[in-house]
Design a protein that fits this description.
The complex is a heterodimer of chains A (221) and B (213). Chain A is mostly helical and 221 residues long. Chain A has helices spanning 2-12, 44-54, 57-77, 82-99, 110-127, 147-166, 169-180, 185-191, 195-220. Chain A is built from 9 helices and no strands. In chain B, 29% of the residues lie in helices and 24% in strands. The chains are: A mainly alpha (221), B alpha+beta (213).
């Protein structure tokens, strides 16, 4: 499964596109370019920002080819029929286009951000329920994210992907089940004490971000 | 304001996964709106969701990209997330109430205690606002499963613990707890309960000794 996925990504990768970058050498060496760790994986942040900045249809197609099949699989594993999953995956990607203006690359990776949209669509389609959302923080007029933060968010996301792959099979399946809605809250409580260690550094990063933000706000007030 | 009683990891994970009933989701979204620690932990669990999304794929139908572009051109752009609102109630809760505290449609429970049940599309759990005058006990009730109680104004004590604005108490069916509103300003809480909540009595627990003859 994993091997097939990797091969497909490599085949999908348009050669020479500036959305693709080599293995990183120095975290902060070149400003103005979003980078990721792996050689074959496109820099999805850069791709999504092209959609956000210039409604770039080719960039969107690239996102679509990678993420739509993953959203579809996620929805089918969550219990959606194939036609419903297909329809919802298209719908989620259309939402990605419209919501691209709200994407903030120093707060979440593209996969995480798309996951939240797919999750909300699933709640709507399968549970027919409303999802209360936390209020948005006022991040102020400082809309240009810090490159180092963006880089760190991507790195952290890579590490998390890696950590998930390295979990023992049984634990990894439990984590997946929790996200696919196959575990109730009490089952999650009983069975998955496990991802916590995996996500500790991600929590620290998110906290740092929030504190920086609060400090900035305190200074500007 | 320092929040001392936070959401548990399983609750945040279930909310990040989108698998928790709406009523609990409302308590969680409201707490996260007030608590940066839980906001950060939630972001981390959502990142786990992003990693899970990457693990498998199913081929899309032929022509799906074109169909998606058609959707893009006909779709009503989605609303932005709720912005911070002034008032006692955080934005997600104001959406359910239709405004701040003054818009709540209270129903008396006796002894000055009041409740307002908030409408949910999902009936797996129910959620209500409770207003308990200082010094009065929370209405005695039974719940079969999880109960989350979030303080929005005032404070309550339960055994040796004190819960103030932003604090959330997590209780399951086994916990026999007796929250009492702290003296002073009326304690206003948001409480979500698994299954249908039944008040053992329509009057607060304070009156129970007199009735249980």
């Amino acid at each position: 499964m994993m091997l097939t996925a990797i091969r497909t990504e490599i085949q999908d990768a348009p050669l020479g596109s500036h959305g693709y970058v080599g293995r990183e050498t120095n975290a902060h060496a070149s400003k103005g370019r979003w980078r990721v760790t792996s050689e074959a994986e496109p820099d999805w942040t850069a791709v999504l920002l092209r959609v956000r900045e210039s409604q770039d249809r080719a960039a969107f197609a690239q996102l679509f080819h990678h993420f739509a099949p993953r959203i579809k699989a996620f929805l089918m594993k969550s219990g959606a029929s194939e036609p419903l999953a297909e329809e919802c995956a298209q719908d989620v990607m259309a939402t990605v286009w419209h919501k691209a203006v709200q994407f903030n690359p120093d707060r979440a990776s593209v996969a995480t951000w798309i996951f939240t949209i797919a999750r909300n669509r699933r709640i709507d389609a399968l549970r027919k329920a409303r999802r209360p959302e936390p209020e948005d923080l006022d991040w102020g007029p400082d809309q240009e994210p810090d490159q180092a933060d963006v880089y760190e968010t991507q790195q952290e996301s890579e590490r998390l992907n890696h950590a998930l792959r390295l979990l023992p099979e049984k634990q990894r399946i439990l984590v997946e089940k929790a996200f696919l809605g196959e575990l109730t809250h009490s089952e999650i409580a009983a069975e998955t004490g496990l991802p916590i260690g995996t996500i500790k550094s991600r929590i620290r990063l998110a906290l740092d971000k929030l504190r920086q933000h609060l400090d900035k706000k305190a200074v500007t007030k | 304001m320092t929040i001392r009683h936070h959401l548990s990891d399983p609750l945040l994970m279930a909310y990040a996964a989108g698998t928790i009933p709406e009523a609990f989701g409302l308590v969680i979204a409201t707490h996260v709106s007030m608590c940066d620690d839980c906001r950060a932990r939630l972001a981390a669990f959502e990142a786990v969701g992003g990693a899970v999304l990457e693990t498998s794929q199913v081929e899309m139908s032929a022509g799906s990209l074109d169909a998606c572009f058609d959707r893009i051109s006909t779709m009503t752009p989605p609303a932005p997330p709720p912005a911070r609102k002034a008032g006692v109630l955080p934005a997600p809760l104001q959406d359910y109430v239709g405004g701040d505290l003054e818009r709540v449609r209270w129903r008396p429970l006796g002894f000055g205690a009041k409740q307002a049940i908030l409408p949910c599309t999902d009936s797996a759990a129910s959620v209500r606002l409770l207003a308990i005058p200082g010094g009065v006990a929370m209405p005695d009730h039974t719940h079969r499963g999880l109960e989350l109680t979030l303080v929005l104004q005032g404070a309550f004590t339960d055994d040796d613990d004190r819960f103030e604005r932003g604090d959330v108490e997590i209780a399951d069916a086994e916990v026999d707890h007796t929250p009492v509103a702290a003296p002073g300003v009326t304690c206003i809480c948001l409480a979500a309960t698994q299954g249908r909540l039944k008040f053992s009595s329509l009057i607060p627990r304070l009156a129970q000794p007199f009735l249980r003859i």
